[in-house]
Design goal:
It is found in: Mitochondrion. This protein is an alpha+beta fold. The protein contains 8 helices and 17 strands. The chain starts with a helix and ends with a helix.
Length: about 350
């Protein structure tokens, strides 16, 4: 590909090419392609204000609705260990426009823009060597969804997973609220039957794991908590959807050609929302390279070292490891180092 003047002028063509060459050179120099990577692969770093401008928002206003979506860069506050981040906020409205073709509103979302071109074609993220998508966020407790789009046969396909957090909240109930919730549950049950004829996948369930629920009567933050937390979502747990409908047969994410990553809110609960995002990255677990930053920002809610590797990889193969150790007794390293040694055997 020969870059023309107009091509080079679009979105810093040469800067993107240089950055991608630098990243690939580093991988080759460190022989990272020969073993499981132990360092994070950053996709969206909102400490850089340019990353915010490289994203775009969506809301039902595009079809005449009244929901809003904004992305604002928030500078760091060193005194409270708050990093520079992006604030995804606005208001959800389920009011229908005066348009008989629109039957459902109440959504907002954002994602990164097309990453553009470099010397060898279109830029994609290759997350194939990684097990998790990690997001460091500060949530208001609403039910957000993480969206991943790849280059696929059906361009409108999206892989989705609920963004379950420690700060999911159950609101105090009143008779009026109970009636509203009853109506909403009935509507959601009808919608769920249409959207998920095979049943709601666990990765998209509106009901979070019990461990993530905090009573509304509890304090806003637990002792030592900053409100920030890191969520690890397994790539193989994402569900393939199209326009909100689960697609059958299910197919895995094409990890070598990820086009965009974003977050949406489709809970159709009217009112304001506010989600803060620091970084989004691919990883094989919480390693030594980023544990210091994790502890500094997340405080008491920081993930422990090797989280992800220990819970999703070692425990899932514990029985196989015990059988193997009986045949060939030897001392095994733990965590990411152990994962690397196993991969290289």
């Amino acid at each position: 590909m020969i870059p023309t003047r107009s091509l080079a002028a679009q979105g810093n063509f040469f800067r993107r090419s240089a950055e991608e060459f630098g990243r690939l050179s580093k991988i080759a120099w460190n022989t990272e392609a020969l073993h499981t990577p132990t360092k994070p692969y950053t996709l969206l770093n909102f400490e850089d204000e340019r990353t915010v401008s490289d994203c775009k928002t969506f809301a039902d206003r595009a079809v005449g609705g009244f929901s809003t979506a904004e992305l604002d860069y928030e500078p760091a506050e060193p005194s409270s260990n708050t990093p520079a981040h992006v604030r995804f906020h606005g208001s959800i409205s389920t009011k229908l426009p005066e348009n008989w073709r629109v039957e459902r509103t109440g959504y907002a979302a954002f994602r990164n823009k097309d990453r553009g071109l470099w010397l060898f074609g279109r830029l994609f993220w290759d997350v194939d060597p990684y097990a998790y998508l990690a997001l460091r966020i500060k949530s208001d407790g609403r039910r957000y969804t993480v969206n991943i789009q790849t280059e696929s046969v059906v361009e409108t396909d999206i892989h989705q997973h609920r963004l379950y957090t420690r700060h999911h909240r159950i609101q105090d109930r009143s008779p009026i609220l109970d009636q509203a919730l009853h109506t909403k549950v009935s509507e959601d049950a009808e919608a769920a039957e249409e959207l998920y004829p095979q049943g709601i996948p666990s990765a998209l369930s509106d009901i979070p794991p019990e461990s993530t629920i905090i009573s509304s009567t509890s304090s806003t933050t637990t002792s030592g908590s900053t409100g920030w937390e890191t969520v690890l979502l397994p790539f193989n747990a994402f569900v393939r959807t199209n326009h909100g409908y689960v697609v059958e047969p299910q197919t895995s994410i094409i990890r070598q050609r990820v086009k965009s990553v974003g977050i949406g809110l489709t809970d159709r609960i009217e009112g304001p929302y506010d989600l803060r995002i620091h970084k989004v990255w691919a990883t094989n677990g919480m390693g030594e390279a980023d544990i210091e930053e994790e502890r500094r920002i997340c405080g008491a809610d920081a993930l422990p070292l090797d989280e992800g590797v220990r819970s999703a990889w070692i425990e899932s193969t514990q029985q196989a490891e015990e059988t193997k150790s009986q045949k060939k007794p030897e001392k095994k390293e733990k965590g990411l180092k152990g994962l690397r040694s196993e991969w290289e055997e």
